[in-house]
């Protein structure tokens, strides 16, 4: 087991490179198996545990996977199984993207129900609704989702809730359906657009991704391609918030500034300076920032995935902030750990009231999930004294080389084996 040890209270300064987006990569890799001919070469893949996990899952299904630096090649021409039932499948959320891809290509799949971060109930009713509307029979049998269809036929589907996963999964299944599918009330997240662009590079015909209406004209088959994953909006947002919290000046490179607008706007409202470059943002802050209210919303609203890191910054901001978490009802597991460090936070249902304190004090804390871990790293960076973070396997699922990246901008953070 490992832990992170952080000696806090130093400003962070310099430049940091953002990796490829986790939530795009963990969708694109399983979706790649839809190609019945040729290899997919996916570039800008982040070096994280969730990607390793997906690679193992794909190998178990019979894909040939080769990893070279940040590039992964997937040859799925000789897939031997449509039944994904390993421990890896059960522990990962994104394994559900296998359902859409296998259903499209083979008209059948059996995939164990997915796991993921413990941030609330994670239903898949909208995925099922979409697959059924396309003509599939869906059953849940001994903890697995079983889908089968003689034919998939394009249709109009209106999602009851805005869901990233359902949008990607049903869009994927519809690429090989007969005729036209229209998805309404679709998610607009950058990684939805990235998966659509990837599928189009394989020969699909998808228009409108990034708006709430996506139109897919079914094609006969998809073939391998070379594709590069977009930069990680959430990793970038985490570094932006860290820079604002530590009172430093950090240029965050390899980003799409447009994807970060809701985060930039909040940091500026708090009194930080944010300057956008072509593919970078620079965040500069000095002293205590002002409290603000946050409501998490689907893109382009404030992302739920940076709510927890933002909560840390609000802990030391001046005044009272209200956080309204409207996507995941249990995304406050970091709060008790922040309280151990001196934070004043009260959670009632999906709302947290944060009263800013002068400082946090280092202690031993435990990450309960991925973004809780990121929130605790930022807390350690600003706290007086030493913070030890346990449960860092959650952080490694989604942040590549987090300690090296923070060290490169002046943080005193080390990984220690325990
Ligand atoms: C994706 O999860 C991300 N995960 C999450 O990232 C992220 O928090 C979430 O989107 C929202 O942006 C991956 O991409 C692997 P949803 P997903 O379907 O697809 C409800 C992180 O930290 N819903 O958009 O599972 C659901 O309960 C993580 O990187 C239904 O009701 O999220 C939630 O309230 C964790 N029925 C809302 O929709 C459904 O069928 C949004 O969920 C599906 C979802």
From TrEMBL:
| Active site (catalytic residues) | 117 (proton donor)
Top-level lineage group: Bacteria
Key word Cell cycle present = yes
Q: Which residues bind phosphoenolpyruvate?
A: 22-23
The record's listing under Gene3D superfamilies reads: Enolpyruvate transferase domain
Q: In which pathway does it act?
A: Cell wall biogenesis; peptidoglycan biosynthesis
Please indicate if the UniProt record lists Cytoplasm as a keyword: yes
One GO location term (cellular component): cytoplasm
Q: What is its EC number?
A: 2.5.1.7
- Please give one Pfam family short name: EPSP_synthase
Which CDD domains does this UniProt record tie to the protein?
Answer: UdpNAET
Q: Which GO terms describe its biological process?
A: cell division; cell wall organization; peptidoglycan biosynthetic process; regulation of cell shape; UDP-N-acetylgalactosamine biosynthetic process
Cellular location(s): Cytoplasm
Query: Keyword set for this entry?
Result: Cell cycle, Cell division, Cell shape, Cell wall biogenesis/degradation, Cytoplasm, Peptidoglycan synthesis, Pyruvate, Transferase
Q: Which family does it belong to?
A: Belongs to the EPSP synthase family. MurA subfamily.
PANTHER family listed in its UniProt record = UDP-N-ACETYLGLUCOSAMINE 1-CARBOXYVINYLTRANSFERASE (PTHR43783), UDP-N-ACETYLGLUCOSAMINE 1-CARBOXYVINYLTRANSFERASE 2 (PTHR43783:SF2)
Protein name in the entry: UDP-N-acetylglucosamine 1-carboxyvinyltransferase
Organism this protein belongs to: Clostridium tagluense
